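Pipeline run #58 for the internal structure catalog. This entry was flagged by the ingest filter as a single-chain record with no existing model, so it goes straight to prediction. Upstream metadata was stripped on purpose; only the residue string is passed forward. Reviewer on rotation: M.T. Logging verbosity set to normal.
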Amino acid sequence: VRTYLGLVLDKCADYNSSLASWHAARLAVRNTYDRHDFGLAWSFTEMNMALRDRGAFPWALSQVVDAYEGLCKLLEPSRPLFPSEEWQKRPPARVERANAANLRHLLPDASVDAVVVDPPYGNNVMYAELSDFFYVWLKRSVGDLYPDWFSSELTDKHQEAVANPALFKGAKGNPREQATRDYLLKMRRAFREMRRVVKPQGAMAVMFTHRETDMWNALGLALLETGWEVGAAWPVHTESEHSLHPARKNAARSTILLFCRPRDASAEPSFWDQDLQGKVRAEARKRAQEYQQAGIEGVDLYLATYGPVLGVLSRHWPIHSAEVDPETGRPRPLEPEAALSIARREVFALRKEQMLSGRPASWDPATEWYLLAWDAFRAREFPFDDARKLAISTGTDVTELIQRDRLLGRK
């Protein structure tokens, strides 16, 4: 009971902090975490905590009870009214709290049929930093019930698999690049452990949503280097149409589901030649057309092709690039970004053909960039790096678009 009351207290804090604002459309208080970060509210709202029937505590309690009942209803179909003898022999479900990169004390080799994982999305959300908001309240309300969970002053920022540049401030090198490398290493350890526990005929489903190619490159490398083959990929709409996360910006509305299986480790190396690049190009166009028919559009259409492209790479991995490492004299391993760039250009080409209804026509690079930017992002604001990559794809320079053509501004 104390644990659930602790959640009630957390709910009240979430809706009654100085970062909580007023939702005019719903005529209600908007909670602290209406976004994936700390958003300053110049004018904040307060709930009346004292009302016995309509105050914050009774409302928060009703929310916790509603969530509990919802979980029970989800479990109900798995518990038959008249269980058979075979059903009664099933082992009970087990929930463990552990590090995904080290499960040897829980699971032996090749013992799992399926892994379903929703990994952190790179630099999208800093979970541990945001969790400090609730951690300090829970430590006071239920910390004595779970002393191992609340042994530190605040949450551990160094163990989570996110690309957090703040952890590398003051260190040598670029903090963003170091954070991305750290994310890759942690994801690689986790995927390697999942590869160890899954059966040879087993499978893994990975959910991923990110608009930046750097994060897809890191995720792709982690999957490819730990022995996984991407067999299929599908985008699924997951974001609310009215959410502030995707609204007015080019945030993805879809989660990409990657369905993977263990890859044969004895495969011979391939080379990043014209034949393999042609396979990537053909797969990207074919899947883009399929996704369009399923209602996927905008930036989601470009992101959705990344999964099938990773599938092509995984079926030919390891792949050597044309570049040679000067220290070893051997070809460098391919970065997935090279294939993702081809996929992006192929979707650009497809959209141009559709805009022109098949008519032969061409635009100058600046016009082409402008039209494709609105078609892909459908927003006035998007990351500068996305603008730069789109400019490269259209044969122009983003600096010229700013200074000469005055088509965009950077801030």
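catalog note: The two ends are 50 Å apart (CA to CA).
catalog note: The longest helix spans residues 175-197.
status: ready for reviewer M.T.
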